[in-house]
Amino acid sequence: MRSPKSRATPRGGPETGGGNRGEFVAIERLRRRLPGPPAGQVWIGDDAAVLGTTEGRVVLTTDVAVAGVHADLGLIGLDDLGWRAFAAALSDVAAMGARPLGAVVAVAGPPTTDLDLLYDGIAASSEAHHCPVVGGDLSNSSELAVAVAVTGEVDGEPGPVLRSGARPGDNIFVTGPLGGASAGLRGLRDRGGAGRDGSSEAVALETAHRRPRARLVEGETARRSGATAMIDISDGLLADLGHVADASGVGFRLDRVPVAPGATIDDALGGGEDYELVVVAARPERLAAAFADAGLRPAILIGSCSADPAERTLDGKPTVALGWQHSWG
User: Fold this and answer.
1) How many structural domains does the chain have?
2) What is the pLDDT at residue 54?
3) What 3 state SS string does 151-200 have?
């Protein structure tokens, strides 16, 4: 978040709120509620953040969450939107096998937006994922959007895990059961919002939608164990695994898909927003040992890569394309 600069809006106009109030006061309030930097680094309050050096490779990613597109604020809170936006960006870092260094958060929205509630979720997600908010920006707009950019590092070898590294015969794993976020959204719609007397299973599904976790430790562990390809499941298993197959020039045969309790197979195949990882590995015994040594849940074997790029099957039957994508002209 920047220090004040000249603006097209005159002092006292809608962006400043009058008498140097508004945006800059809000930035200072947010700066005070977030942790400060260690010695030698600069976070919120200058024109750009200054982070420490890294001996490895740097990864950069950005993700934007728009109210009404990525979240229904009639069903979840602004704090949930903040958490989800932050976790979604970090999930891309996890898919590279990287460790986050810091994030910048830009918020554009109506002046009536409850920034403190939004940042309750951002700050909680930042703390839970061990990734500081080091800067950002605020602006007014007719719709609420939260953009999160993350810088991460990959130290040592092997390097970042790409989508393009899968080879025929490699095994395909996921880091957990799928479909919980999609089923959680459906439950929220059925009950008209969070906390409406749901069962423990329903609450778990709601949480999967409202507060997903980026699998950062799993991603780094998989990279160090020699994973050949990875992707996070944001658009749905079939869609995201399809991206790996396209980039690698392989097909896939799925034997099983682990479904979260209370979800359906369609939720698991196409629901998206689980943010579990698809991990492709040539040496599954190394992956299993690495996950065990790290105290992680065992990765779940779901199938293998094939030499025919057109082969995309589940239980021997061709899969039907499922998943989410934004529309553009």
Assistant:
1) 2
2) 79
3) EEEECCCCCCCCHHHCCCCCEEEECCCECHHHHHHHHHHHHCCCCCCCCH
**What domain range is 53 assigned to?**
23-154
Average pLDDT over the chain, rounded to whole? 89
CA–CA gap between residue 222 and residue 225 (Å, rounded): 5
Q: Can the peptide bond before residue 158 be classed as cis, meaning omega within 30 degrees of 0?
A: yes
In sequence order, the 6+-apart residues with CB closer than 8 A to the CB of 204 are 180, 184, 261, 262
Which pTM does this prediction carry?
0.86
Same domain, 67 and 185: no
Q: Indicate if the pLDDT at residue 8 is higher than 50.
A: no
**Residue 147 — left, alpha, or beta (φ > 0 → left; ψ -120 to 50 → alpha)?**
beta
Neighbours of 282 (CB within 10 A): 17
pLDDT band at 18 (very low <50, low <70, confident <90, very high): very low
Of the pLDDT bands very low, low, confident and very high (cuts 50, 70, 90), residue 6 is: very low
Give me 305's structure tokens.
Answer: 């890569």
Tokens of 200: 């423990």
Structure letter (DSSP) for residue 270:
H
Same domain, 181 and 300: yes
Q: Which amino acid is at 113?
A: T
